[in-house]
Write a structure and sequence with these properties.
82% of the residues lie in helices and 0% in strands. By secondary structure, the chain is mainly alpha-helical. Helix 1 runs antiparallel to helix 3.
């Protein structure tokens, strides 16, 4: 009888420590997600400001008189515009999620509650995808990406195997 009570106490202590660990892990994940969200929003705001600057720059006479400046400014404008569009989709999805959670918490009707739950699950799957897309869009492009490259593949010393390897590389 006494052994059972000791083992039961150990199990209870283990469960309690697991629950505490889970709570702290969830809290840290929430804080990390919140930090990432705030960092993305700050970057989005800076890109929105840069987009507005580029719009005014595109309408200035100084840029319009030089074709090289027009091309460079248009390229930068297109890049900033895609970032801002993805960011606006992200912020809209986050706001929709917040309103769906609020609706779920305050809903009296079962049908409205079901709709809110469906929207929450849908948004919880789409927000990470949009967040990842925004993160990839925020990575600045390599200046060498716009340049062309010629790659020559030759079969080296090694006879038939090297020619087979070169043909595989070509495919």
């Amino acid at each position: 009888m006494r052994k059972k009570s000791l083992s039961e106490k150990k199990k209870k202590n283990q469960k309690a420590s697991q629950q505490k660990k889970t709570f702290f892990e969830l809290k840290n994940v929430f804080l990390l997600d919140n930090f990432i969200h705030m960092n993305l929003i700050e970057q989005l705001i800076s890109h929105q400001k840069r987009l507005a600057e580029l719009e005014t720059k595109l309408s200035s006479q100084e840029v319009l008189s030089d074709p090289q400046k027009i091309r460079e400014t248009n390229e930068e404008y297109a890049q900033e515009k895609t970032i801002v569009e993805i960011g606006e989709r992200y912020t809209k999805a986050v706001k929709d999620l917040e309103s769906a959670i609020e609706t779920r918490n305050t809903a009296d009707d079962d049908e409205l509650l079901l709709l809110a739950e469906q929207e929450i699950t849908e948004l919880q799957t789409t927000i990470p995808n949009i967040e990842q897309e925004l993160t990839w869009a925020l990575i600045p492009p390599d200046p060498m990406d716009k340049k062309n490259v010629i790659v020559e593949i030759r079969a080296g010393a090694g006879g038939d195997e090297s020619s087979l390897f070169a043909s595989e590389l070509l495919r």
